[in-house]
Write a structure and sequence with these properties.
By secondary structure, this protein is mostly helical. The chain has seven helices and eight strands, in the order H-H-E-E-H-E-H-E-E-H-E-E-H-H-E. A two-stranded antiparallel ribbon has the order 1-2. Strands 3-8 form a two-stranded antiparallel sheet. The longest helix has 34 residues. The chain starts with a helix and ends with a strand.
Amino acid sequence: MEDACIIQGENVAAESRPDSKKARANKRKKKAATIFGYDIRYFFVGMIVFAFFGFCAENIGRMAVQHIFDCRHQILPFLFAYGIALLAVYVLMGTPDELRFFNIRIFKSMTRGRRVLSHLIYFAVIFFFIMVGEIAVGMIYEKFAGVILWDYSNIPTHITRYTSIITTLLYGGGVYLLMAFAFKPMMNLISKMGTKAATIIDCTLGVAIVLDFIATLIIMFATGEAPNYWSVKF
């Protein structure tokens, strides 16, 4: 009995040592950076997923209006700007059910009426930022690179060539629906892959997406034209 107590005591002591495997694992967990509750490695994977959604959304719109399916000026089927948009939206507002301004919750408690109001505010803010963002980004590319990446002049309700009420409603509605109903299930699913797998995806596909985006910027600002690697018209 005394020997058993000694062995058990040694095991407890070993686990409590700073250099023990368990202590090191716990230390790594404590040090893991998070973005409002999500491990940053998983969130980066979520940004990659949204970048792919953005590629699909833009091509769906182009196929419906212009009957064109193309590369969107990049090699990979991922649009980096949509990944950044996810980061900005989630950091700024969270989700429609948990509306906040950075760390400040807008509604301390939720009633049915407040929940509806929360969703309406969320959509209105997204609508505003998409409209302003499209105008700003489009004008920056036009002014400094001499490139017109898109033109909504032939769409009713257009405001400048870079945005319109119709397209903003569609894009804003898509972002709202994703954040309201798909974001949390998506992040819960991503979180099941483990941090090692997430890190590999971030450091390979994630880095490739960023480099692809940077290459596009360099080509545009150097040549005054946006690269078009492939395009299908029907």
